[in-house]
What we know:
Number of helices: 13
Structural class: mainly alpha
Strand content: under 5%
Radius of gyration: 24 Å
Low-confidence stretches: 105-111
Number of strands: 2
Distance between the termini: 60 Å
Helix content: 40-55%
Mean pLDDT: 84
Strand order of the largest sheet: 1-2
Amino acid sequence: MHPVEFYTDYRNFLSDFYNQKKRSSRSFSYRRFCLKSGLKSPSIYREVVAGKRNLTSATIALFIKGLGLSERDGRFFENLVLFNQAKSEEAKKKYLAILRGLRYRKPQKRIPVHLYDFYEKWYNPVIRELAAAMEWNDDYSLLARSVNPPIKTSEARESVELLLRLGFLRKSAVGVYSQTDPDITTGSEVNSLAVRALNREYSRLGMEAIDRFPPSERDISSVIMAVPKGKLAEVKREIADFRKRVVTLAGDDGGTADNFYSLVVEFFPVGQSLPPQEPDHEKNR
């Protein structure tokens, strides 16, 4: 199994830990783990892994003891638990920042929390496209001006360095950049948190685009429709298929791209036929 820092869900880590221990020692059991940890309930491990129970500050410490984690890995596990069990997005961001700070600094093939670094700046995906498509000869000022809206030269340099480090870009011996598919894995929770932050930025840019670009260079429209709940999944599939068709269409001619666009499709509820019941204090006003 991977070290704890490769995980973005502590329950998956606990599941893998148990399975590995069971394979190496037939005598290992939930009860044996609980005795070693000082846990009173022999079923807590199974219930936590199944998602039927959360860990508290007290049981986190006992689990760290039973898992035999080092001080640093114990801190990572503790903050991973707090990240997974956090209710608000602000709390999740707080614990994710701590997790990112606790990762090892030595190069590793896969580091889950690095994915958040890629999505943290809206222009990173843009730079990834531009760097591989332009002949910019490491002129970071030119690269920065090619982003729309332009970014700082220092931001362009930092973005390229990040993309190279994470494996999203590679640089040949003659200085030519090309895209790669990085071997980076992440759990859905980190991924969704990162993508939500990125989508907010692109939504903001979309609003600004109404004034920054003439209609001939953009297409921003909206429609209000009635959608039965039973049709939601089907509509979302259509949207996903539409995105794939547009991406395929854009790359059909095989030529060199000279423009780079962001496609943001927003589909969200704006009303309901059976609204929530009005609170009593509102009725009495």
